[in-house]
Design a protein that fits this description.
Elements: E1 3-7, H1 21-29, E2 32-35, H2 43-55, E3 64-68, E4 75-79, E5 93-96, E6 99-104, H3 114-123, H4 129-149, E7 155-160, H5 162-165, E8 180-183, E9 192-193, E10 196-200, H6 202-213
Helix pairs in contact: 1-6, 2-4
């Protein structure tokens, strides 16, 4: 059976809602749903998970893959401390390879302690917006080339509000030239969580699902 695969950050995750837009969209398409979005997720995390799934044949040419890009500076790093020492799994931590994977963005350090706190706080001083955009452009092109090589023809990208606008106009291969969905105005009072204009409420997720469905 064909599946819908969605990779993204908290915009596409179960952030204070029972269903994200990807799940609503899969219901519209009457297909299975594979959720690869995660709070505080980075574009690198999306590429890492999707490429791993494709290479391992967990995502095939029959599937529809949608990437909801986020801000370019986000990343992830490995820590030798196990989850138990970091307070358990949560928005920023996941068990990995004898330690933990730590998702990092501009304010991550405020939720950490120990060496992870020091690293995340210091990391902010080594971010250059222009360089991060350059890295994004290179990885975005390489990602498309790999997906094309594996026959993933139904590949789409979403730039939602401020999360995607900082990336500029996406460079798309001929195979995907019409597959960028720009939703600059998705974050409104009626579509967002109370007192949070950066995350969608149930109405917002349903609205985004309708917008994407019309483009597939």
């Amino acid at each position: 059976m064909t599946r819908l695969v969605v990779a993204g950050c908290s915009v596409s995750d179960y952030t204070e809602v029972d269903k994200p837009w990807g799940e609503y969209l899969s219901e519209k398409l009457s297909c299975e749903y594979l959720h690869l979005a995660g709070a505080s997720g980075s574009n690198y995390r999306m590429w890492r998970l999707l490429v791993s799934h494709v290479v391992d044949n967990k995502i095939t040419a029959d599937d529809t893959v949608i990437v909801q890009y986020t801000t370019p500076e986000r990343n992830e790093f490995w820590s030798p401390r196990p989850l138990e020492q970091l307070g358990g799994a949560g928005e920023n931590y996941h068990g990995e390879s004898g330690g933990s994977l730590v998702k990092i963005k501009h304010n991550t350090y405020t939720h950490m302690d120990g060496k992870e706190h020091k690293f995340a706080k210091l990391w902010r001083n080594f971010i250059n917006p222009e360089f991060e955009i350059e890295k994004f452009r290179v990885n975005h092109i390489m990602f498309q080339c790999l997906m094309k090589e594996y026959g993933i023809t139904k590949l789409y990208f979403i730039q939602a509000g401020p999360y995607g606008s900082s990336l500029g106009e996406l460079q798309l291969l001929e195979s995907y030239k019409n597959n960028n969905i720009i939703c600059r105005d998705i974050f409104k009072v009626e579509t967002c969580l109370p007192n949070d204009l950066s995350h969608l409420n149930d109405n917002g997720h349903r609205t985004l699902a309708d917008i994407v469905a019309a483009r597939l």
